[in-house]
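Translate sequence into structure tokens.
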Amino acid sequence: EFVGSTSPMGIERVVIMAVRRAVERISDQQPDLLLINTDGYVDGDGVEYKVKISESLSPDLILYISTEPRSRLRERLIERFGVEKVLTLEGAGIEKSSSERAERRTSQFHRYLKHGKVARCKLSECKFTFLDREYAINPENISTTGKLEICDASDLTILSSERKLILPRRVLGGMFVGLGGEVIGGFGCVIRCDEGDNMEIWTPLHTFQKIHLSLIRLNEKLRDERIPHRDLNLYTEPLDKEDMC
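Result follows.
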């Protein structure tokens, strides 16, 4: 599953759905044990996010590992699933600084891209996904595929709804992407996107049919930055003529 973000903050629903799909695929193989290690997001909305991801998976047992045996997260898990399903284990944990986490991500990006070369594609011939939704420049079925619009705007915020995705052209340069078909075959980094329907991507893959967009932009040193994003609504998305009374 390719979520397209280094943090679940703000896209909790997308992460939960992706984890659930992965678990369903693995469960079809009837494993003896399936262990899911969640992320360290517990601040702010992180507690309810943890509860919701647990609810979506219906676990037989929840392991709560922390140096804090009493916390709001533990209380909510017990409240929702019962004390018999929540096993509390005291552990020192592994604390990593933000710089250590950044270094680890940089090494992973380098591993994904080090054997790459320039691949060229036509935007109008590709399918795109962004935060679990599918888009195309010229969607064949607007009930299942939203419309992708690339604009030359000074604001680098990505705007999205189920029926439309608005991408500032400048935000594509350096974007880390997943590539393949329905299944991710590899990764790449967008080099540029011109005004003539052409996109260049640095990737070790030779062919791909779908581009999985992300909220991750890489600089020349493969350091990642989060691309700003917000949902489209009636205030930011003009009504189509057919929607008007």
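Note: The helical segments are 12-27, 46-57, 72-81, 98-113, 169-172.
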